[in-house]
């Protein structure tokens, strides 16, 4: 603003006479801390101190206002010319990266100027084709680890250093003026102010779907087969308890064959399982079930079927036991025979004691509990064969 103020003060005589009072205007311009555009809006267009009474002298007010507008526009034109001149001098001092081709080694001179951009990074000028920058930005924003999105900022392919934020804006505005279509990820990154945290927080559901698509095309065979086994387990009732062989029992080509045949059904299963879009979950679930059923019908030699299905009675018992939480019934007990009563008046104590001993010897304790004799013996034993002499 100081440079603009000095320019307006030096060319004041072109628009105002010497006797005209412009002290208040130049005082505001000297101590203004706003930008040039804000100064034009607040101190010229909406300035009520340009003339004393604008309501009664509308023509005089408009004529006076036009003088200040012309002064500002002429001064701003001179300032822009000076900036362009100094920018040209600076560009001549910068180093130019000696690469006259795009990333596919096509000569850049073959392409029109609206398909190219020159970027200043670390006092060095780099010329790119906009289509190459689109590929770099989309790949960096769609970076994943497994099924988790981890977007990153774009890097300069020649220096492996992140692009500055102002250069990201320059690239986006250059794409607007070109004939290239701006991808959705780049547009959303621009709406996030080129901030990775805001971008991930605002557009996580869309990034999650991209992760699933990228996993289907770029995931390893072993990881895919692990999710395929989970898919067969989740849909075990729909496919009559069919299952796949373990990957430890197969070679790489056999695992790859399973993944190629179940690739589309795996995509639908992962979209149903991990997508954040609840509107399409049921659709992908139905598609996954239909495809896995068709696979079991078309390739019965590639799957195994359970010989015996879990019986309903066992299931009901386990369910009832879980619901009621009742312990199992106790084992049956064998009660000993009743002890006959002895007339103490007729038999003396010695006779009574001998009768009780005989009664105890007659009782077979093995019927009650064989462990009562020896607690370290099992309850049931097989008879051993006689020893040879």
Descriptive account of the structure:
This protein is mainly alpha-helical and 389 residues long. The chain folds into three domains: 2-93, no CATH class; 108-203, no CATH class; 220-305, no CATH class. It contains 16 helices and seven strands. It has helices at 2-10, 23-30, 36-45, 58-93, 130-141, 165-176, 184-191, 196-202, 204-218, 221-234, 252-261, 263-274, 281-298, 312-324, 349-362, 365-368, and strands at 95-96, 116-121, 124-129, 144-145, 148-149, 242-243, 304-305. A three-stranded mixed β-sheet has the order 1-3-2. Strand 4 and strand 5 (148-149) form a beta hairpin. Helix 3 (36-45) runs antiparallel to helix 4 (58-93) and helix 10 (221-234) packs across helix 11 (252-261). The mean pLDDT is 80.
Indicate the topology:
Elements: H1 2-10, H2 23-30, H3 36-45, H4 58-93, E1 95-96, E2 116-121, E3 124-129, H5 130-141, E4 144-145, E5 148-149, H6 165-176, H7 184-191, H8 196-202, H9 204-218, H10 221-234, E6 242-243, H11 252-261, H12 263-274, H13 281-298, E7 304-305, H14 312-324, H15 349-362, H16 365-368
Parallel strand pairs: 1-3
Antiparallel strand pairs: 2-3, 4-5, 6-7
Helix pairs in contact: 1-4, 3-4, 9-12, 10-11, 12-13
- Please tell me how large the radius of gyration is: 45 Å
User: Which sequence of SSEs, written as H and E, runs from N to C?
Assistant: HHHHEEEHEEHHHHHEHHHEHHH
Structural class: mainly alpha
Let me know the number of strands: 7
Number of helices: 16
